[in-house]
Amino acid sequence: MVWITAALASLLASTAFASVDPVMGGMLDLRGVMLDDAATDYIQRRQNDAPATDASQSNMTQWNTDTLQACTASLSALNAASNPSGTAVCYNIFSLDTNVGTFMADLRLFQISLPFGEFQGIPPEDISVGLQYNGASVSPVGQGMQTPTPNITSRATNPKLLQTYMFVGQIDKDRMTQQPMDTGVLEALVMPIVTLTGKNGVQQVSTNVSSNEAAFVNGIFAGEVPQSDFTRASIAVSNITLQMTNGTVAFVLPGVNILIFPVGLVITSIWLAIGLGFYAFGTYERYNYRDTYRRRKARADGKPAYARI
């Protein structure tokens, strides 16, 4: 997909904090998603010599449909939001180049329940969203909104989409060379901290929105589970066991050869020799004391010194 690569190369930003204001429009201004138009128009403006083709527009439309379905299915299990804004986030990676660290992210904000606490009654225009990455920098590509919804008095059966954002980003170069780029490390680098900020009168309030409620449900990392060291070791043992069963590799009895210098064996042997030396010396001294006692006892009884008691 040449148009994606060109877009990523041209839109990388050097800032580590991306903020879009206003953000969601609360529950009073639910506007919808025009993801395919926003992203495609922006990319077309950046690529005068390579306009987006019908295939690329179809890909974005399909991505928008699949992502919306996956996010809605994941967030439908929530009975209420975990923050006072009443919202939840669905975050996905559209594309990722592990060689250079460029990626395109899709962030969607859903209304799960009514706002409460400090966010209750805050006008939509006074609410903004912020993204903070630990090891990456991003820049917004496009923003979509939903058409107004008249009924806002109660929570609907499914989460309501409030905002959609597309970002292009770059993983920090030093992070790309510090450690192996496995699934767990990459997910941590491209996962943002989402913050909502608003004004309640003269007071500014903010809250963090959990990114784990619906993350990587579509696109890159979808269906993948980061493996721990124990899991990797178990998989390696299973693989080598299967190879031995199939006769691919020969069985080698472990523990019959010393392949490294036995430092522990040397130290233990020294302590054992010292202990045996003290025990042998004590036994020898007790033996001499017994013979001395017997000789003294024999002389006291008028017997020869070599006589037995």
Provide a brief overview of the structure.
The chain is an alpha+beta fold and 309 residues long. Helices cover 37% and strands 23% of the residues.
Describe this structure in words.
This protein is of the alpha+beta class and 309 residues long. The chain has helices spanning 2-11, 35-46, 54-75, 173-178, 183-190, 229-246, 263-300, and strands at residues 17-20, 87-97, 102-111, 128-132, 136-145, 160-171, 193-200, 203-209, 215-219. Helix 2 (35-46) packs antiparallel against helix 3. The radius of gyration is 36 Å and the shape is elongated. It starts with a helix and ends in a 9-residue tail after the last helix.
List keywords for this structure.
309 residues, 9 strands, four-stranded antiparallel β-sheet, 7 helices, alpha+beta, 23% strand, disordered N terminus
Number of distinct helices: 7
Overall geometry comes to elongated
Structural class: alpha+beta
**Distance from first to last alpha carbon:** 106 Å
Give the secondary structure arrangement, pairings included.
Elements: H1 2-11, E1 17-20, H2 35-46, H3 54-75, E2 87-97, E3 102-111, E4 128-132, E5 136-145, E6 160-171, H4 173-178, H5 183-190, E7 193-200, E8 203-209, E9 215-219, H6 229-246, H7 263-300
Helix pairs in contact: 2-3
